[in-house]
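re: ur question from yesterday

yeah so i grabbed the chain u mentioned. its 209 aa long if i counted rite. heres the sequnce exactly as i have it in my notes:
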Amino acid sequence: MKIGIIAANGKAGKLITAEAVSRGLDVTAIVRGENKTEASKVITKDIFDLTYDDLKDFDVIIDAFGTWSNETFPMHSTSLRHLADILSGKDNRLLVVGGAGSLYIDKEHKTRLMDTPDFPEAFMPLATAMGKALDELRKRDDVKWTYISPAADFQADGKRTGEYLLAGEEYTTNANNESLISYADYAIAMIDEAVNGNHIQERISVLAK
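ran it thru and got these structure tokens back, copy pasting raw so excuse formatting
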């Protein structure tokens, strides 16, 4: 299996790349600058400059792109739209590192985590931008996409336990009433989905056991 990982130099991207390499997959890091990952193959290109020719040989493209300033939040939508456009009608799968704010807290799927009073105000602009990007992606029936949301507490430096719980559209807690996952365990879930392809055109979520 050939996997291309966009923004492989980022915190999530690095661990996803390392997980894929550890499984013996054919991994290419897609980065803007110097490759800082364990991948031996590299495409050096900005996400907005990627064409289908760049991505056509990958069975799976993982989009780990993120941006964190008010000025650049719209790029969550524009970058994902660009990738969806160039993969439109193709067999290549697109897996997206998503956010938790858009997870639903009710079975009717009317209220999202970010709509609740206790949602941290500091995270609202990012959650809103990522939620908008997901809403737009849902309309794309021409792309084999999967959007993977982490738990509410997404821990960059958390331990790799080697285990996780798979959930769906709704905010879920584990037996300890916690919604958390480390980047390392999230990477395991991401590569499991890349290999298995069980949730095409679906949003799923993952959390620690």
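noticed a couple things. Helices lie at 11-22, 52-55, 75-86, 124-138, 183-196. also The longest strand covers residues 26-31.
anyway ttyl
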